[in-house]
Amino acid sequence: MPTGAIVAGGRSTRFGDADKSVAELAGVPMIRRVADRLAGADDPVPPGAARAGGGDPVVDDLVVNCRPDQREAIAEALDGYPLPVRWALDDEPDRGPLAGIRNACRAAPGEYAFVVACDVPFVDPSFAEALLADAADADADAAIPRLEDRWFQTTQAVYRADATAAACDRALARGDGKILAAVDELSVVRVEDATIRERTSEHTFTNVNTREEFEAAAARLAEHVS
Ligand SMILES: Nc1nc2c(ncn2[C@@H]2O[C@H](COP(=O)(O)OP(=O)(O)OP(=O)(O)O)[C@@H](O)[C@H]2O)c(=O)[nH]1
């Protein structure tokens, strides 16, 4: 299995005066929801509480990428997490998601890392498994989904950790902060729209940027509970 690599070093500016990674969505910090899904829990429970039943983990361990000042709150959110957690702290903040992916991949002990943003509370663990199989079967450096009407979903993708960290390093050294600048150097399985739709629903990519999107995600969770 890959390492789960959650990227959380953003400033959540569209979210307002709070770090969205630890914002409690129906009582559970958003990053914990993402982490719990990777650990196989269908129904994440508040930090510290016993884990709900569910499927098997789809990752061996977890790397959390964030700024040093976020660590304490995120560690609290992950209290009692059932898999080993490693920290990939940004030595320089605000270098963008590419630096986050680089730092997360550097810290990943597994050959592959499933990189995922902290703000996708409905991420589908079986989709992560399928992406790993895509990359491993093709002996590729990455498997990256691409919906028809959107660009590559680079923050919900599987990467070969060492090759990706090195490609990100080179892109950052060139002053090119675009994730695709690093991806261009990798051998990539492109997972296209039809395949994505066979495997999962678009909710796996639903991310929370604003308070309105946060409320919509809470409403969706409430519907599922009732
Ligand atoms: N390490 C690191 N991660 C980042 C950085 N910027 C964004 N990210 C992460 O990349 C992912 C996608 O970014 P956004 O959805 O734009 O999140 P954000 O930057 O916190 O939010 P906005 O400020 O509203 O754009 C999130 O998981 C962020 O935590 C950064 O400078 N460093």
TrEMBL record:
GO terms for biological process: Mo-molybdopterin cofactor biosynthetic process. The keyword DNA-binding does not apply. One of its GO terms (molecular function) is GTP binding. Residues 4-181 form the MobA-like NTP transferase domain. Keywords: Cytoplasm, GTP-binding, Magnesium, Metal-binding, Molybdenum cofactor biosynthesis, Nucleotide-binding, Nucleotidyltransferase, Transferase. This is Molybdenum cofactor guanylyltransferase. It comes from Halorubrum halodurans.
